[in-house]
Amino acid sequence: MDFIGKRKIWYAISLLIIIPGIISLFLQGLNLGVDFAGGNALQIKFEQEVAIEDLRAQLISMDMGSSKIQTMEGNSYQLKTTYMDQTTQDNLLNALETALGSFELIRNDAVGPTIGAELLRSGLIALVIAILLMVVYIAFRFELKFAIAGIIALVHDVMVVISLFSIFQLEVDSSFIAAVLTIFGYSINDTIVIFDRIRENLHKVKKDELQGVINHSIKQSLTRSINTSVSTLILLLALFFFGGETTKVFVLALIIGITAGAYSSIFVASPLWFDMAFHGKDKQFSM
What we know:
- Helix content is 69%, strand content 13%.
- The protein is of the alpha+beta class.
- A 4-stranded antiparallel β-sheet has the order 3-4-2-5. A two-stranded parallel sheet has the order 1-6.
- Helix 1 (7-27) packs across helix 6 (144-167), helix 3 packs across helix 4 (86-100) and helix 6 (144-167) packs antiparallel against helix 9 (248-278).
């Protein structure tokens, strides 16, 4: 396969996901969980069947009509409300039990707005530090153009995850930040392996030979990249379908990110480096 010759196709495929995601971010943003937005998240499981319309009507009667309701398995619902103190929570639960019947309270998380904002700020700082350290590491091990191409590929992976979470309004909580940082480390490892192979094969190569060298380097690493990603995804899919409810956001973000990372390592990072290197002034490349 001519990976470099068809690079515009690979770029277009990525943009087909990222551009709608950016539009979605402007129109509806991210579905921030209680961790970041502040408020209460309650998961309740009714003993008898309860229609979502009846549940919403009860919340409206208590001046909580702005609360978000998410249908879950087994006659369960997740309620996301503004921040409530313990007395308000007790009043809400008692009113729901009186109006709709007995239920089991499976989850009850409460985070104040100030703490939520602090968690979001800390998460963003962690991401920025991770990006800067990776730029330094790749630039030191290879060269600056490799670092720039690698970071753009990492941003691509994160944007794919954020885009899909925004488009489908999947909840973003603190575990999402942990997943993004994990994706950073996993994806850059795969990209560095291919970059290392390119460096080994370069030596002194003329510009008209560069495309063939990169294609050959990617092919040499292709089996390893695919096997590593597939084996990891098998484990993550098992965790997603058979693991607990609390880990689903984390695991789903990892599944999307690692898939995007495998794609970008092969089809984005190296072609980006080729585009930057090809426009250099040197007639030969020596690593």
